[in-house]
Design brief:
Three copies of one chain form a homotrimer. By secondary structure, chain A is of the alpha/beta class. Chain A is built from 13 helices and 19 strands. Chain A has an eight-stranded mixed sheet with strand order 1-10-12-11-13-16-14-15, sandwiched between helices. Chain A has a four-stranded antiparallel sheet with strand order 5-4-9-6. In chain A, strands 18-17-19 form a three-stranded antiparallel sheet.
């Protein structure tokens, strides 16, 4: 088991270059639906065994219906003299998501109703969508818009809203048990690196990692268009949701912020596990209470499902200036932060997989450690397979079938791995046996 | 329902001039029993539909008996030369409550056993009673007493302790349900403005207010001689006490102190409601734990009843220098503090009446707000009937039949009215239905 | 009952001179087994009715076996010229506990493997044992060892490990009920005054005290060789462990440190009782959470027993510089600290014995205290049998069968004795009757 542990520690480095993968995915024009998502999943699918699900437009999913599929070929604002001032080909943020087709000559005043800028960040292009708005729009820098002083402009959006499908991807790595960990990210944002791609690439690498391991728990990775994708998956998988023991929504994992972990609605082991790893790893972090706004934890934690799902982030949506702008780009996410996020989640997954409940074979008094070679002779506490004498005493004291290893580590206030090492020693010595929580 | 809400907010101003009513009631010589209480209730009864209850002297009430009724006509201390030095006609605090009749010439030393002064507040007359003491006494300023240096004085108290009754008043405003809110104040203190009259006048105005409204809950207002009045009411109404869902004892509501709310013995919704209103109204306040000393919450929270009754005060009995002295007068209570106290309690009553439990009609995932006109298009959060988008999300997330609107407001940390507005939107959209707590 | 209370307070002074008894016991060479323990118990047995138990070597006790009995007659290190440099006769710490016999001439290098010193406390002799180590050793000051620069030394240990017994002592003072308080100390350390003898002498005096009293609870005092002694007692008494309602392990009670109380594993009334006595007695103290290292609470709180046993100390093992050295001597423990420790524990035992549950005979409203002579006339709160008016109100309010006197004292935040006095008044007045917790 020591070998397994070592390989686990070693494998907390991703098998692929995460930032390279962000760069490869960056140019694609993702939206709720459409070929941008398909292309994204095709690239992810080169690394993992990815099942692609297509849910036809109009399919009812819970309270919703799958929307029409959006296709966009080109879009521009030109001066009447023919100069292309704003062009979708330059930056896919320029067009509001789900813009309907338009071809018109408009006064600046009329056009202004369809133009989105950031007056306090005049050099950034905002990211806007209007999924169910039956509208069209352009996003551009406020500086450019203020320079566009002509009376009339020509606008053109060559887009299509048609019967198609919503596409999502799923990787399932079966475990030795029916119990599962659910890990999800959203895949519906166009050229935004942190709020979208960081989650996609970290999750891709995690799925690669778990696929190479034998685990107690199954791991289900979902690449979902936000909200409607999560709802579609929930709708189709409702009979099996009781398998989900732990869940994490991943997003914004590439920036330099401290970690932020948002707890599940009902409180869950995963909340303790993430907090434990962040604390004992010495990572600056903040724990946030559940709130019903954010990412797809909103759906997983809705009252009718109430799954044990939290959300791990570095920067928090809406609080960093690059959020939902053209500044959330390839420079904003850094390789070292992507790798660190990967390492933290990998450690959380290892912890959840290895968390276990034991019961002392005879808990009446302490066992005689000395004759089992487990007593550090004469006072001092020495290491034994990673565990101190004190860790072993905690393990033997709390192995009552009512404390998991994580519970013990929290009460002893030491890293999980030390209680796990103590459990190995005690198992090998025949002092404990596996149990289950009451 | 919006109209109802508006009128509720508007009606948080009392319909009468509270300080004027304090002034009208101030001169009356209230005590546990007697005509002072009857006159007080007669004045209150001009504003509300007041039932007057007379419980004959000697009637057993729980562990007690109704005492003899006390009548006092005059009382004085005079010099032997006939100069009236202390006269009940000047200030009804001069005579200890329930003093028995006396007519005597006494040495100063003998008299001193019956004289109460405040040596550290030499210009104030203390308030003293001796309900069950079979004694008599005078209360005067220490300054005057020190000036009374003659050897002998003539004292006269023309009082009477005789078979009569204890009088209390009751206003009941029925609700749409059998559930009731109990609101009480004491009416047994003579010319004391804050510790007595402030509660009486605020409660009178609240009873006027509730009588003009249609409410879910019934409202029962009790004007009680302290302790024995509460016990008499409890004794006579024991079979119906299970109707009381919430209760408040009102006292000392006219001074300039921050609010003090003393929690119920067992912890109750009313504790949360008062704290919520004080917090979100931005009122300086302090929450005090239950203790078995104070006002009639002592009786309501005795172990055999253990009703959900707290006590709202501004200044706390025994902690402000004017307490139980002649300085607790018409200057000590201010119109603006009386009005503010009224507004706070009115808001608490509105909250309790409107608190409700809902359950999502389908809680599996978020509902599609957009097609119901409830989604604020493109990111930002806008107001909709008083609720923000976030309030609506909290409501929809916690409408699981296990959280009342107040529970939700506390978890979301926003004013109750916003969750209530969110519930209206969700009800109108058919997203939730009424439920009850498990 | 007032007389009983007075005698209780008076008897919080020990009946014997505790420091004299420490001095008498100090020279004896205690170890896990052997005549040092027997001589110690013989001296204790002059003061209390002590049952001596001998458990033969080799007897299985839970996971362990009773070790061979260790006898030592002499031990020394001499220079080749015959000068005795280290002599067991001078200080019994000089020989490592359970050293096997040896008679040899050794090079300094070979000898050094068997020599224990404290390099950072060069004038102190350390205390070391090697109970199950099949080894021998000498403990000496580092200063002396550095002066021993000859090449060769003669060592001699005249000891014996032979079939014998483990000896422990037990005092049982029966109570009026089957319920028991368990109080233990360890008796296996040689000339160490605080870490061993302070516990022995305080416990001896407590056993004397309890033997002279009639108590509700039985009191069982165990003088145990650490670990194996506790396990032996647990093994032999397992069927009756459910009688143990409260337990305390006593150690290090003679030094000048603040008190330290280590809570039981599962949380227990004794934890509240000790904290209450330390707080209201104004003793500087710290409450420590349970941990599975320390004294015999480790055994009593092992998962298979999980008894309500805490540990009271002044200085904490391993944290004061005198710990396990020759500086833990007769100067280190002071009469006043021994006496104060005795007084604290005596008060805890009184509290546990007198803790009781009452229920109001009629809890509907407050009883009329006045006609029972329990009302302090005219406002102020005066003492009545040790209880204030407020204490009596707390008692009457919380006498609902769900709060013990200790629970009430904690909620009222007043000393236990005041609630107890209030209960006496209420009992005498027929207001409450004994009850039991649900």
């Amino acid at each position: 088991m020591l070998d397994t542990l070592s390989s686990a520690v070693l494998s907390r480095t991703p098998a692929i270059d995460l930032h390279d993968l962000v760069s490869e995915l960056f140019p694609l024009n993702r939206s709720l639906t459409g070929d941008g998502v398909r292309q994204t999943l095709a690239i992810v699918g080169r690394h993992v065994d990815l099942a692609i699900h297509e849910v036809p437009s109009g399919t009812p999913v819970l309270d919703w219906h799958i929307p029409a599929e959006w296709t966009i070929r080109s879009a521009s604002i030109s001066s009447m003299s023919g100069q292309r001032l704003v062009d979708f080909a330059d930056n896919n943020l320029h067009v509001m998501g789900y813009s309907k087709p338009v071809q018109a000559v408009l006064s600046r005043a009329e056009l202004s109703k369809h133009v989105h800028t950031l007056t306090d960040q005049p050099d950034l292009i905002p990211y806007r969508t209007g999924y169910y708005a039956d509208d069209w729009g352009f996003c551009l820098t406020d500086r450019l818009w203020r320079q566009m002083t002509e009376d009339v402009y020509r606008v053109e959006i060559d887009s299509e809203l048609s019967q198609g499908a919503l596409t999502y991807g799923e990787v399932f790595v079966p475990g030795q048990t029916q119990q599962e960990v659910l890990i999800t990210c959203h895949v519906c944002h166009p050229s935004l690196a942190n709020d979208n791609l960081s989650g996609i690439v970290v999750m891709t690498a995690l799925a690669m990692r778990q696929a190479r391991r034998t685990s107690r728990l199954g791991y289900r990775f979902l690449f979902l268009p936000a909200t409607i994708g999560a709802l579609a998956w929930l709708d189709r998988n409702e009979p099996n949701l009781d398998r989900i023991q732990h869940g994490l929504v991943l997003t914004c994992l590439g920036d330099s912020s401290a970690f932020h972990y948002k707890q599940s609605r009902k409180g869950a082991t995963v909340d303790c596990a993430v907090a434990h790893v962040l604390k004992h790893g010495g990572y600056p972090h903040e724990i946030l209470p559940f709130s019903p706004y954010g990412y797809d934890e909103r759906q997983f934690c809705s009252p009718g499902f109430d799954l044990p799902v939290g959300c791990l982030m570095r920067g928090v949506h809406g609080t960093f200036p690059e959020y939902h702008t053209s500044a959330d780009n390839l420079d904003f996410v850094k390789p070292e932060y992507l790798d660190q996020s990967y390492a933290v989640i990998a450690e959380v997954l290892d912890l959840l997989d290895r968390d276990a409940v034991y019961v002392r074979i005879d808990g009446r008094g302490e066992p005689q450690l000395g004759r089992r070679g487990l007593y550090r002779a004469i006072a001092g506490q020495r290491e034994a397979g990673g565990a101190t004498q004190m860790d072993l005493l905690w393990l033997l004291n709390l192995a009552d079938g009512e404390h998991s290893l994580l519970d013990m580590a929290i009460r002893a206030d030491v890293p999980f791995a030390r209680l796990e090492a103590a459990a190995r020693l005690a198992l090998e010595a025949g002092l404990i046996k596996p149990s289950v929580l009451p």
